[in-house]
Amino acid sequence: MMERKHLMVFDTTLRDGEQSPGCSMNLREKLEVARQLEKLNVDVIEAGFAIASPGDFEAVRAVAETIRNARVASLARAVPQDIDRAYEAVRAAEAPRIHTFIATSDIHIEYKLKSTREQVLERAVAMVKYAKSLLSDVQFSAEDATRSQPEYLYEIFEAVIQAGATVINVPDTVGYTTPDEYYQLIDGIRRNVPSIDKATIAVHCHNDLGMAVANTLAAVKAGATQLECTINGIGERAGNAAMEEIVMAINTRQDQFPAKTRIETTQLYPASRLVSQVTGMKVQRNKAVVGENAFAHESGIHQHGVLANKSTYEIMTPESVGVATNQLVLGKHSGRHAFEDRLKDLGYRLEKQSLDSVFEEFKVLADKKKVIYDRDLEALVQEKTMRMEEHYRLKQFVINCGNQMTATATVRLINGKGEMEEVSTGSGPIYASFGAIDKLVGMTFDLEDYSLQAITEGEDAQGEALVQIRKEDGRQYHGSGISTDVIEASIKAYLNAINRMISDVREEGA
Ligand SMILES: CC(=O)SCCNC(=O)CCNC(=O)[C@H](O)C(C)(C)COP(=O)(O)OP(=O)(O)OC[C@H]1O[C@@H](n2cnc3c(N)ncnc32)[C@H](O)[C@@H]1OP(=O)(O)O
Ligand SMILES: CC(C)C(=O)C(=O)O
Ligand SMILES: [Mg+2]
User: Fold this and answer.
1) Quick check: is 305 in a domain?
2) 431 with 417, same domain?
3) SS3 342
């Protein structure tokens, strides 16, 4: 039997994914996501854009120092100071990569770079050579490749490969191309770049017209072997190609794509939950592969078919992507072994200390809830392990409200100095409690987004509140909170966003 071609997965959740408005992650969250990417077995982790800020630099460096089973890359413009910074950040990695880019479309060259094709080519070659003098693995991206003149792309790719680039990337930066057109472009590059066999062809697709995954798959057919993507498809504007969709399409349609990735698919759903939790970006219910409805069958004819044989309406199994089908799991009489076992099934392997503390929280929750679902467990683990440094923590709150009166909230918080309490009124219990918190932290914020959803079924379901707040300087922070009480979940989410803001300010000042 012929050996199937290996496709490399290049994950850019921590770089392009983080470019989604409101999706910034702090160092601890980035490390947690990077560890999950390592469990997924991705080939390359793009950990950030080192020159963007001191926080980005530290995060890339921390990922490079921590991750051992994937290449770690940092993005860099085609300028020496970006390349130096990227090199400093990734050099501790087992397999470091500098990813440098410059735009090649006339629109970008003229209006943005105020340059010429010749100057861009010269700069690209010089910067690839410079990066290559620092380390061996250098990726070059022709930004806006799909709106660039193909002959110019052939020329610049040939020149950067001659200069030492190991990977040439053909980004559809603005999500403009179509599957047929992208196939032609990649095929043209394979045929017209003489040294192409010395480099890997990478593709990086955006979803502005909803075709990012389709375009990526068309490129696979044309011979691309590095696929760039993000978890849940988060990324600049409408996002990037979603890893879970690309990988499952390849796995499910081997007749179309006789190739393989190294991805441990059972880690896809845990990765999706983690990224949603740390970015505050909800996954739509009908999202392919990882959405809540991806394996739900509502209508009679479908249910009948699935009962007779799952393959009637399921083209992949929920288990294959890490969605547990055993919905009713544990209760208050369950012990530590069963608990740990269930977490392992869900893809979580915790250190003893974290396990003990999550188990304690589980028992508290089991006293409040008759049935603990897998989603409850995931929420507990993620809340516990991902909890920010808590500058302010909720001690207690009392709300007085009704449909014909102004709500009054008394909120008591704990911080490093002790306990503090404030009272505030508002048009409803949530606004009243947020007002009390503003008084306690001595700041006011615009509440830009607030949502609440039940994460499991039943009257005693836990609610997950997501908030996005904006500080006076325009910066946005998201927060999430989970509780069986929706007001408590909302207060926790608001405090989570404030704690994130405080950590961010301190990181910057450090
Ligand atoms: C398609 C993509 O996703 S590209 C990555 C996008 N991501 C980001 O931009 C996030 C991080 N960015 C940042 O923090 C900042 O933009 C920085 C630190 C990179 C640069 O900040 P500033 O120096 O203030 O420049 P600013 O962002 O305003 O403008 C970009 C400059 O880089 C130039 N530039 C843009 N891309 C490139 C490139 N690939 N190579 C060389 N120069 C470039 C622009 O022409 C402009 O130059 P100018 O200052 O001489 O006019
Ligand atoms: C930096 C490049 C690869 C990019 O993100 C894009 O062009 O979309
Ligand atoms: Mg991009």
Assistant:
1) yes
2) yes
3) helix
Neighbours of ion ligand 3 (CB under 5 A): 16
Residue-range definition of the domain harbouring residue 174: 7-279
- How does strand 71-77 pair with strand 44-48? parallel
Instruction: Look up the CATH number of the domain holding residue 225.
Output: 3.20.20.70
Closest C-alpha residue for ligand 2 atom 5? 16
Nearest to 273 by CA among 281, 265, 264: 281
Q: How far apart are CA 225 and CA 231, in angstroms?
A: 19
Separation of CA 99 and ligand 2 centre (Å): 10
The encoded tokens of residue 177 equal 């191309």
Select from 14, 143, 206, 215 the residue to mutate for testing ligand 2; criterion: most ligand atoms less than 8 Å from CB.
Answer: 143
Tell me: do 252 and 159 sit in the same domain. Answer: yes
The label of the residue with tokens 């055993």 reads: 326
Tell me the whole-structure pTM to 2 decimals: 0.84
The verdict on 429 and 328 lying in the same domain is no
* Same domain (yes/no): 106, 243: yes
Question: Is residue 108 a known part of a binding site?
Answer: no
User: Among residues 224, 248, 279, which one ends one of the domains?
Assistant: 279
Whichever domain contains 497, its CATH number is 3.30.160.270
What DSSP string runs through 210-263? S-HHHHHHHHHHHT--EEEEBGGG--STT-B-BHHHHHHHHHHTTTT--EE---
Residues 191 and 255 reside in one and the same domain: yes
H or E stretch including 328? strand 328-330
Task: Say if 369 falls within a structural domain.
Answer: yes
- Please check if 204 is assigned to a binding site: yes
Is ipTM over 0.95? yes
pLDDT single digits (tens) 36-65: 999 999 999 999 999 999 999 999 999 999
Q: Answer yes or no: do 248 and 99 share one domain.
A: yes
Residue 1 has pLDDT above 70, yes or no: no
User: Does residue 446 have a known ligand-binding role?
Assistant: no
CA angle 440/447/445 to nearest 5° reads 40
pLDDT digits (tens, 9 = 90+) for 218-262: 999 999 999 999 999 999 999 999 999 999 999 999 999 999 999
Judgement on whether residues 144 and 239 belong to the same structural domain of the protein: yes
**CA-CA-CA-CA dihedral for 256, 259, 261, 264, to nearest 10:** 70
Q: Final residue of a domain: which of 215, 246, 279? A: 279
Task: Answer yes or no: is the C-beta of 49 below 6 A from any ligand 1 atom.
Answer: yes
Return the ∠ at Cα 267 (arms to 264 and 268), rounded to 5°: 100
250/301 same-domain check:
no
Name the amino acid, one letter, at 476.
Q
Give residue 169 CA to ligand 2 midpoint distance, Å: 9
Residue minimizing CA distance to atom 14 of ligand 1: 52
Number of domains making up the chain: 4
pLDDT in tens, 352-408: 888 898 999 899 888 888 778 887 888 888 777 666 678 999 999 999 999 989 999
| Helix, strand, or coil (residue 33) | helix
